[in-house]
Amino acid sequence: MADTKQNAAPMEMEEEKLNDQMKVRREKMQQFIDAGVYPFGQKFDWDHHTQEIKDQAETLEKEETFVRIAGRLMAIRRHGKTAFCVLRDITGEIQLYFRKDVLGEESYDLFKLLDIGDIVGVEGPVFTTHTGETTVRVEKWTLLSKSLRPLPEKFHGLTDKETRYRQRYLDLIVHPEVQDTFIKRSKIVKGIRKYLDDRGFLEVETPMLHNIAGGAAARPFKTHHNALDMDIYLRIAPELHLKRLLVGGLERVYEMNRCFRNEGIDTRHNPEFTTVELYQAYGDLEDVIFITEDLVSKLAQMLYGTMKITYIDKEIDLTPPWDRMTMIEAVKKFTGEDFSNVTTIEEARAIADKLHVEYTEHSGIGKIINGCFEDYVEENLIQPTIITGHPLEISPLTKQDRDNPLLTYRFEGFIYGRELANGFSELNDPIDQRERFVQQMKERALGDDEAHQMDEDYCRALEYGLPPTGGLGIGIDRLVMFLTNSASIRDVLLFPLSRPEQK
Q: In total, how many domains does the chain have?
């Protein structure tokens, strides 16, 4: 019992301390109000960012230019009738210099009510201190928003990962590098759009609510539409809607938007994620492999001026062309087992048993090959690698390989052991597609809740004619992870899904 009391005491003291700080800040807020100052200000017409001032400091100082900047106070050092502060905006930090004889007694007294975390606007000339630091001499300041909660301590900071994800606003304040990650994410998204727009692709929007969950093998989120009295699904992929547009005569389309899959959460998966899917009529597998290699390498070049980047502990060379292997070749390389001449399920199971790869009684040769690939190969694909020759059994929307009916014209792109891209020569034979949907329905009946449902309207659309087509999907979140050296998908999502906060 004694130990319990000793452990509890610091927590109680910390809570009390925090409450005291918040109380003091509210008292200061009231002092501003009593002085006729609204503590949650109005519009402020700034004309510079901090980095601009630093870049132009010599000219601004020489010409005695007054600058107007706004941001959050991150440090305050008071010395009687003078004070130095650090102001941070989206571009960085700059030093501010406050003097009582410049501001006047009334303004300086109010200045003393400011806290770290307050948002202010300031106006004044630029000068360089004797230590060489670019500084703004404040001649006028305005309170724009009083911070009623103290920021985390500088040296202890915001260390709990879950708190950082839940309170991303605080994470962004305390960790400027996090801001940089999401600024880079925005640049990547813009870069993708420009790349595709420049090549004649039309950006479109297709439904998020589907009455049939299709376009990928995944478990959907299910809900109910009251007015129509029908069950609907959050989309797991936009593929089938996008290909309908090619049937209708659009030749190159893409969509960059959210998809939803009712699956686990880990460093590579979030139930809500962003993809770009594109379809090129009169194209094939080689076209979308080229786009993948070209697009990803150009994005790295745009961000860093090089196609060689560091991810975690490895230098990754994104320069095209990437390494290429078939799935069967890759399994042989990393296990020594060769599926190229396997023709019976017994032979496939014997290899799986030898490698301790799990399968079900309903798994065919193709699923066993894929199981061996996932267990033994994926984690070894560190440098960018194109894997082709996927089994028909796991590729229900892909054109069959004419030379090997077991396989399809499909590829996946891997970097650092993680799938980044998935593309096909799209199946456009309506009879074959219907048969594959029927097979998928049999697998659903046997308990595979990720198997495709029958989509009669999509089959009908194919009967009108889908041109030979190359299709591609790239996970934006994983792409951003690689290009920003982020270890977890949750680091590149502004608000990743979390359990409700426990009170």
A: 2
